[in-house]
Amino acid sequence: MARQGRRDPRLVGALGAGLGAILLLVAAAGGCSRGSTPPEPAPSGYPSAGGLRPVASAAWQPTSARMPADVPRAPAASCARLTHPDGWVRAEDAQPGDPGFTVPTDDRAPQVVGYADRRSAACGDSVTVYLSGPHSTLDLEAYRVGAYQNAQARLVWRSGQLRVAPRPMPALQPTTHLREADWPATVSVPVSADWPPGFYLLVPRSAGGVAGPAIPLVVRDDADREPVLFAASTLTWNAYNEFGDYSLYHGPGGNAAARFGSRATVASFRRPLMGSGYRQLTFMDVTVVRELEQIAAAGGPDVAYSTDVDLDQRPSQLLSHAEIVFGGHSEYWTRREYDAVAVARNVGVNLAFLGANNLWWHTRLDSGPGSVQPDREIVYRAVAGDPTPSSRSGDLTLLWSQWPEHRDASSMLGQSHAAIGVHGGYQLLGAPSWLLAGTGLTAGTVQAPGSTLPMAVGNEADGYNPLGANPRDLTVVAAGVLGGVRGPVTVSAGYYVARSGAGVFAAGSTDWSCGLWGPCADQQAPDTTSTALRALTRNIVTAFAQARAGLTHPSVPGVVPPPASLLTHLDPAAVGRYGAGSESAEEGAVSRKVHGTLPLAVRGQ
């Protein structure tokens, strides 16, 4: 628990007579505010890359924290070790794209489904793709998602005609409810130098058009040092994947309890991505990729691509970039990934979480027979049934906030999970001038034009928690209030500067990501909100392209009043509702604790 100290409250900004009087700055004289984290340690012995080293400061404490070691792997091909010149993404996006391309959806019953033997590849790799569908011939096409002269993607590779046949549903493992396909290979896809690093969708296409959902593939360049690194949340896609009627959330059953009780505890990547899992891909990550490419195409920083599993396997890559960007929903994290991102932040790497419900479930990785990458995700959600020996209790797949980890997401994000089934908006409160520059938005008063973002908050949302393990100097950029069965809750977007100088932004809404470019799965934000979200995101990504962005973009510490008090001062567009949603019993219980009376046992690291 953090030490307690006195702070001198001061008024925050120009929030109007009512709202300004209840938003208080928490000055730095005399220690940490209630629930704030202890000083962040400066790691020693970590690999140095990108010129990053700890900032000298008397506040730093000696520590033995180190970047987790990379997992050894076979040497990469020479073409995978090439560096790109500054501005290469802009040059790539200047090429003609495919104006008829749109991201395939799985709203209808797909004719053809498939999966690949890996989620990421580098130049020189060969990706094996497995397809199943009615007896037919089709092509498999690889599109790089980008900002190609107003087209969403560019066709990079086409297979030629392939024979497709129906394949059996994978057998169900009776204990873990694992379904893992072992279909015959359909095609080997060679990733050559003609494939620029990026985020790809492999699309089955027949004479009648798109034949089924896309298969995602990240193409890495492990030698590059682009300012921005986007980390695809493949573990979250997989957790929600409903192929074969079993996800990490539910299986068959006549009611919610039965469906939760029959859920899988081990989920394989060797199966088609469908249902809610596919929507995680298309609404939460692809939309953010499009925005990063748009920013680069307009002269902004270059972007490289990786996945959460890659961060687990090769965490040293984090130190080669100035900022790490996560999409709309990065809920499932391994210990190695979590520790690696914390070390990166603590040496000055900026973090942007453009969504919500991040850092929630602890997951383990495993590999099935013949796998080329870890391809099994293990999440028991309880001690009972988990075969992990008690001597390795730190690998139990519980909520990160539970025993034995006691890691409150607020210590990394400045906020934590607040509600699901959300429909609401934001009002800009303490947004700093650098974040609003060129956006036409105004933070502060209810009456100010452009101070609200209607329908920017949806699906799942995070919120500032006064009892959480909050970082020092947390700025609540925007906030809203949601009503529901547990009473009003606060939702918020926040920004803080770590002791290393790293800037950390958390959007607080899974609909921030999809709201950038149009309708989300649950609601459609007005064009004014989408325009505002893109402008804010552009400023965040651009500012974070310099390591330790917080040294030139300081945060202003502040607190938000209880939701019932805040509610009386918000614009109606920043007031919404939440529902019962589909959270598990464990998630619901912890969410209520986090935003009600938080036990000391779950306060931070």
Helix- and strand-based class?
alpha+beta
Strand content: 15-25%
What count of domains describes the coordinates? Answer: 2
Rg estimate, integer Å: 23 Å
Count of runs of 4 or more consecutive helical residues: 13
User: What is the average per-residue confidence, as pLDDT, rounded to a whole number?
Assistant: 85
Quick one: biggest sheet?
A: 10 strands, mixed
Give the total of beta strands: 28
Termini separation (Å)? 9 Å
Helix content: 10-25%
Enumerate the spans where pLDDT stays under 50 for 5 or more consecutive residues. Answer: 1-64, 582-605
The general outline is globular
Write a concise keyword list for the protein shown above:
about 600 residues, alpha+beta, ten-stranded mixed β-sheet, seven-stranded mixed β-sheet, about 25% strand
Task: Characterise the protein shown here.
This protein is an alpha+beta fold and 605 residues long. It folds into two domains: 9-66 and 407-602, no CATH class; 80-321 and 361-395, no CATH class. It has 13 helices and 28 strands. The strands form six sheets. Strands 13, 15, 16, 18, 22, 23, 24, 25, 26 and 28 form a ten-stranded mixed sheet that branches. β10 and β11 form a beta hairpin. α3 (234-240) runs antiparallel to α5. The longest helix is centred in the middle third of the chain and has 23 residues, at 275-297. Residues 1-64 and 582-605 have low confidence and may be disordered.
